[in-house]
Amino acid sequence: MPRPRQENRCQTCRLRKVKCDGSFPICRTCQRSGRICEREIPNHSSNHRSSTQDTTEKGYNNSQRQNLQLLDLPTPEYPRSSLKNRRVCSIFQHYIKNLASWYDLNDRLRRFEDVVPRHALDDSLLFSAVIAFSAIHLSRLNHQTEFQYIAEFYHLESIRRLIAVTNNGERIHNGATLAAMCLLRSYEILAENVGTQSHLHGSSSLLAGQQIQIGADLISAGFWNYLREDITVALMEKRPLKIDLSNVSMPNPIEDNDRANAISQLLGIVINRCLGKDAPALALSEWTSLQTDLDRWKADLPRTFEPVSLSSPRKSKFPELVMFHGWHIAAMQYYYTAESILTLAAPTSAGQNAWQKTEHINNMRRKLASNAIQLCSLAISNESNAARVNAFGPICFCGPWITDAEQRIELVGALRLWQDITAWPVDTIIHTLSTAWQTE
Fold first, then answer.
1. Which of 58, 157, 161, 219 lies 20 to 30 Å (CA to CA) from residue 27?
2. Are 161 and 197 in contact (CB under 8 A)?
3. Whole-number Å distance between alpha carbons of 148 and 299
4. In whole angstroms, what separates CA 118 from the centre of its chain?
5. Are 331 and 107 within 8 A, CB to CB?
6. Quick check: helix, strand or coil at residue 94?
């Protein structure tokens, strides 16, 4: 393979003196290492950038190319001026009305709905990320090339600004930057670049070494969103998180949403300790400590976390468990996921005979199946799109333990329905479940 031309190599690879494949906007070398792919990109002084860039490389046909070149997309340099564009304004509103709630799943302060849009009006990076994510979501919902093109345009603008931010030590650790990284991670998923995880790696680099004091600021809201995104991928890939949770200081939970965040942190700790490929087996004392923390969290829950089981019949093979807020649903799903991981990680007693070992395995399978049914029932019984998106990781990890054939069929159908509703890709999850069920 010929060496890429010097002008195509990113600055990150050049400074590290490693081979760069020249991919744009992010080279594969930087993708694999989780580094920001820095490039020499010229500054733009005008408030508008003509959208007549070469669309041939994007794979658009001639008719699409002609229509797209008629667009005059404003650069995000001055967000308030950019919103004078009717398309951009409607995409911004779509984020506030339909997508921000996904990020405010466990946040009674609604910082991604109320604070992020306000910050975005004066922050071109955050504004670019909002428009890119909202546009790619509209593209998947409506299957319109125009939205895909707008999403790609503003995603590239986001990359330009991320490069600048990485060279600014003061800005890289603020809440707006972390919020932008969370939105761009969602862009990666909706663009079906799930395996890339460039922005997930970037967020972990941004948080690395920081002492995080959980409070009412935007960086705390960004941290909880990053943690949930990291948990989702870790459960799907059965690996530890990208982030070390030992530097996170959280006050004792008071409100229900605080308890949902607390179980997020506890699940992250369990994942980091138990899902490492080369992680040593848990000693009984360590396992007991983690299980005690989990049991204590469950025992301290108020009655608001108790689901309502409706008496009227419903056409479902899963129990109906109705809850009244997304953070209640998400919290209990994380609880059942942590329970399942600790069940798998439980130390076995020495000296068991064959009958005792068989009973132990059967009991473990019953418990794992019960946890999976409870988790999936919460997802199927409730209409929270924010909780549905958050449930994909737990379902991917726990779903293989469901044994009933009709429940399996219903779960796959529900996943496809949620994909239609949320535009979130589920093929990887369905493939994981199907493969596990076929290899029993």
1. 219
2. no
3. 47
4. 23
5. no
6. helix
Q: What is the pTM of this model?
A: 0.84
Q: Cis ω on the peptide bond leading into residue 25 (within 30° of 0)?
A: yes
Alpha carbons 140 and 158: distance in angstroms, whole number = 20
Residue ranges, the chain, pLDDT below 70: 1-12, 14-17, 23-28, 30-71, 167-173, 193-211, 440
Surface-to-core class of residue 425, CB atoms within 10 Å of its CB (0-12 exposed, 13-18 middle, 19+ buried): middle
The confidence score (pLDDT) of residue 69 equals: 53
CA atoms in the 13 A half-sphere facing the CB of 276: 11
Structure-block tokens of residue 365 = 């399978």
Q: Which DSSP letter does residue 213 get? A: E
Q: Which amino acid is at 117?
A: P
Residue 46 carries which side chain, given as an amino acid letter? S
pLDDT recorded at residue 154: 95
CB of 36 closer than 8 Å to CB of 168: no
Summary count for the chain: helices (H), strands (E): 19, 2
The per-residue pLDDT for 425 is 94
Both tokens of 160, joined, read: 């330009």
**How is residue 171 annotated by DSSP?**
T
The Cα 320–Cα 373 span in angstroms is 11
pLDDT reported for residue 47: 42
Which DSSP letter does residue 98 get? I
The number of residues in the chain equals 440
In terms of DSSP H, where are the helices of 53-98? 62-68, 79-82, 86-94
Q: Read off the tokens for 95.
A: 């984020």
Find, among 106, 35, 47, the residue nearest to 264 by Cα: 106
Which helix (H) or strand (E) element contains residue 284?
helix 284-299
Spell out the domains of the chain, with CATH numbers in brackets. 7-35 (4.10.240), 71-249 (no CATH), 253-439 (no CATH)
β-pair partners for 48: 74
Q: d(Cα 171, Cα 163) in Å, to the nearest integer?
A: 12
pLDDT at 251: 84
Q: In this predicted model, what pLDDT tens digit does every residue of 211-269 receive, in sequence order?
A: 677 889 999 999 999 999 999 999 999 999 988 888 888 888 999 999 999 999 999 99
Residue 248's DSSP bridge partners are 212
